[in-house]
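Ticket #4471: structure export looks truncated?
Reporter: QA, pipeline team
Priority: medium

Steps to reproduce: submit the single chain below to the structure queue and open the exported record.
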Amino acid sequence: TEGMHSGSTLILNGDEPLLLEKRSLAESQGIRVLTFGLHENADCRIQDIRTIETGMRFSLALPTQNIRITDIDIPTEGVHNVYNAAAAYLCGQILRMNDTQIRKGLASFENPGMRQKIYESGSCRIIEDCYNASPEAMRAALTVLTDISVRNGGRAIAVLGDMRELGIHSAALHYEIGAFAAERGVHTLLTFGKAAAEIARGAAEHGMDRSRLFTNENLSAPEFTAGQLKSIVLSNDTILFKASRAVQLERVIRIFLKDES
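Actual output as written to the record:
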């Protein structure tokens, strides 16, 4: 809130306790705080989340305005993007946009390069998400992966690289992502980078068959991971690629797609 003057508006994710801890501080500075989320006390409450053929559909309830906005569509996958859209809807309202204008903006959304870019390549489906990575973003991407694979009937394959800048908690957080991948039903896991090897260990120790785990700690050898992937991919598989930007995981994608063609 540094630099915000009295009368400004601060929009917070109402489902994140670490943010809500700061609410009273902001309000003591004369800043209006609005929240969005699934929680029943949110100023903008997300409801009726559904996956549709073109992306996600949801409704919003705004109790203080005594209104409910139904069937808002966004052309991208994942509950995390519904949260983003709810925040955007609040921004639009503050800027005095009407419902039609806000819906039009949300419907025209396009993911920037390397951020959850989903496309078909040959007989498989690619989720290219190599711009950045954090534990929360990894979980969101893995959820999208398994949702798409269930919907389309193929296997879920995750190619996950190092998450950078996690400090002393790096090993534990990578391990937790592996556990999450196993619990979500990811069929096959490939890891790229030394830190990412902990993802494989977490997956193995939480029930993923070790025959479906592949590791490569050498970031200078993207062709090795691409070769591993090529050797196991089948028709109708959905493949997620995700890592921190410094890993340059898109190198693996380029080599894999070149070999596939």
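Status: closed, not a bug. The export was complete when the record was re-opened. Leaving a note from the reviewer for reference: The radius of gyration is 20 Å.
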